[in-house]
Amino acid sequence: MQAAKNRVVSIDYTLKDADDQVIDTSEGREPLAYIHGTGQIIPGLESALEGKGPGEDVSVTITPEEGYGERDDSMVMQIPREQFEGADQIEPGMQFQAETDEGVRILTVLEAGDQEVTVDGNHPLAGVTLNFDVNVVDVRDASQEELDHGHVHGPGGHDH
Fold first, then answer.
1. Distance between terminal CA atoms of the chain?
2. Which pLDDT value is given to residue 160?
3. Which of 30, 53, 78, 109 is most buried by its number of CB atoms within 10 A?
4. How far is residue 146's CA from residue 75's CA, in Å, rounded to a whole number?
5. What ranges in the chain are assigned the alpha helix state H?
6. Strand order through the sheet with 76-80
């Protein structure tokens, strides 16, 4: 069976930046399982895995346009500190969820002043060229329940 729309694909992967530094890996963990063709992984990786089957290796370089997008400097903004209800301590590097017109967005704190907090709404990997080494571990049809819920159940996915 091969990776195609509405199939559960399980992969082992290592993600490196342009300087060959490891950003993320599944090594030592369960393979990552996702429903192919539903936008659960970045477009460039999903395209590279289309039609691949168990045992196949894929090495692909993904540009920001096919990854997490280009950095958008307008996404760096100052927010009044009182907007951070319930957060007694705010420090650079902390992340918060914010409800926006485009849905939930993760904001990373860059600076925390007494009156204002400078945050970055860009994905941490925006503007970064990504190098993936992937091994396809398994491909199977997604169950109707997985399709209805929009995520994988069981190993590598959501446990019920």
1. 26
2. 44
3. 109
4. 34
5. 43-49, 144-149
6. 76-80, 116-120, 103-112, 95-100
